[in-house]
Structure formats: C-alpha cells, structure tokens
C-alpha cells in the first residue's frame, strides 16, 4: 500500500557528550550555519538538503571515568563538497582530524574519503567529478 503523503529526510540527530565541541568542528570546517541553539544542550545546523542536529546525551551515557566520549554507531554522514576534496582533506589533517585517504571506485564518477568528527561520528566527503 502506498501512502498518500510524500516524505523527505529533513534532519539527522547525533547524540553528543560535548555539543560545543561538535558545533566548533562543523561550523569551522564545513561552514554550516547555526539555525537553533540551546547552549550545551541542543544545536541545529543548516547543511543544505537536510539539517544536522546535535543533542546532548543523557547523563546515564556520559563517561564517568574522565575518558572522552566516543560514539558507537553504524551511521555514516555523507557531505558533498564542491571544492577540491584532496585540498580539504589536507586542511582537516592539519587540524588533527582523523581522516582516511581519498578513494575512487570503478563505475562511480566521484572521489571519496571517510573521517571522524571529535566524538567519533563517521562522515564521508564526496566530490562529484562529472
């Protein structure tokens, strides 16, 4: 049965220990603009097609031993870049971002590389070549 309504992905929410740390990472490196914010609790960034929201995790999930919070997820955020992917990768590396090599795949006209934000969320950068 086909629903009579149409659907579009409008927002992805990441749960985070340090909302401010992820805010800095995504606004400084990707130039995303803040749409909504409750200091250190909630953040919505305009990313183009969909929004990226960052929600502070519950205290029960925060590290109690002083260690850094690391996300455990099977999700990958994909961001399309219109500039030079190799150059942007070098900029991220210079800032200490964990990011892999630029790759291509037979039959796909794009370059890709995967990285991690400061809390371990996996992202992929894609530069379309044609």
Descriptive report:
With 130 residues, this protein is of the alpha+beta class. The protein folds into 2 domains: 1-59, 2,3-Dihydroxybiphenyl 1,2-Dioxygenase, domain 1; 73-130, Roll (2,3-Dihydroxybiphenyl 1,2-Dioxygenase, domain 1), CATH 3.10.180.10. 17% of the residues lie in helices and 35% in strands. The protein has helices spanning 19-30, 85-94, and strands spanning 11-16, 33-38, 42-46, 51-56, 76-80, 98-99, 103-104, 110-116, 122-128. Strands 5, 6, 7, 8 and 9 form a 5-stranded mixed beta sheet that branches. A hairpin with a 4-residue loop joins strand 3 (42-46) and strand 4. The mean pLDDT is 91.
CATH homologous group name of the largest domain? 2,3-Dihydroxybiphenyl 1,2-Dioxygenase, domain 1
Q: Under the CATH scheme, which architecture of the largest domain would be assigned?
A: Roll
Instruction: Give a quick account of the main beta sheet: strands, pairing sense, barrel closure.
Output: 5 strands, mixed
Question: How much helix is in the residues?
Answer: 10-25%
Tell me, briefly, the overall form. Answer: globular
Instruction: Assess the beta-strand content as a share of residues.
Output: 35-45%
Poorly predicted tracts of residues: none
- The whole-angstrom Rg is 16 Å
- The total beta strand count reads 9
Q: Helical region count?
A: 2
Distance between the termini: 37 Å
Assigned CATH class of the largest domain? Alpha Beta
């Amino acid at each position: 049965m086909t629903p009579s309504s149409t659907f579009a992905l409008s927002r992805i929410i990441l749960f985070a220990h340090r909302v401010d740390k992820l805010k800095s990472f995504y606004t400084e490196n990707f130039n995303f603009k803040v749409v909504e914010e409750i200091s250190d609790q909630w953040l919505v960034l305009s990313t183009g097609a969909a929004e990226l929201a960052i929600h502070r995790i519950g205290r029960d999930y925060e590290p109690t031993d002083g260690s850094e919070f690391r996300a455990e997820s099977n999700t990958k955020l994909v961001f399309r870049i219109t500039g030079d992917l190799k150059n942007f990768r070098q900029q991220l590396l210079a800032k200490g971002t964990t990011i892999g090599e630029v790759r291509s795949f037979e039959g796909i006209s794009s370059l890709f590389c995967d990285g991690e934000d400061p809390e371990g969320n996996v992202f992929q950068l894609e530069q379309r070549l044609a």
